[in-house]
Structure formats: structure tokens, C-alpha cells
Prior knowledge:
Structural class: mainly alpha
Radius of gyration: 28 Å
Distance between the termini: 91 Å
Strand content: under 5%
Amino acid sequence: xxxxxxxxxxxxAIIGILTMIVISSYGMNQEQAIENxxxxxxxxxxxxxxxxxxxxxxxxxxxxxxxxGGVGPNLQGVGDRLSVDEIVSTIENGQxxxxxxxxxxxxxxxxxxxxxxx
Length: 118
């Protein structure tokens, strides 16, 4: 009885080729999905309208959850020291170690107004 040693190798090759085709088509679909998101076709993330939540998400890690400071300065009573426009300018442009652009425009205005009320 003769053995056919090429059959197992041929089956492995065919399975490998089919696997590569399936993985490649999946990757191409993922690439198209990423391109659609970059072009604005994906879901848009909207910023929270709640200034306290915005503060907790981006500012509390440096200024403390209770505005008492930490790495960044104490913000308790910041409305007594700075105007809303000055706070907006600091939020948009940064100051010292604080990075610029954490919030801009209307979002910065909302956070600044909230800070003045605290």
C-alpha cells in the first residue's frame, strides 16, 4: 500500500490560503469603517452640556474634585479673583503647566461660569 505524502501538505496549504483570504477581507472592511469615521461618517461624540461633569472629566485630576487644588491651584472662590473672561482665557490658552485647549468656545464659557458660581 502506497502512501500519498502530498495530500496532508496540500490540505494544510489550502486551509492556510482560505484563512488568509478571510482575514484579509475582514481587515479591508475594518479599514473602510475607519475611513468612514475619519470622513465624519461615524458617530459624533458630543461634549457634555453639564459644566460640573466637564470639570470632573478634564480638570478635577489637577484641581481636585472639590476645587481645593492639587497639582493645579485651588479654584475655590476663583470668581472673586478672576472674571469669567479671564477664566475662559485661561481654559482656552492654558497657563503655567495647564495645557491649552482643554475646552474652547461655548464649552469653556460654561465651565468658567460654573467656576464663578462655586
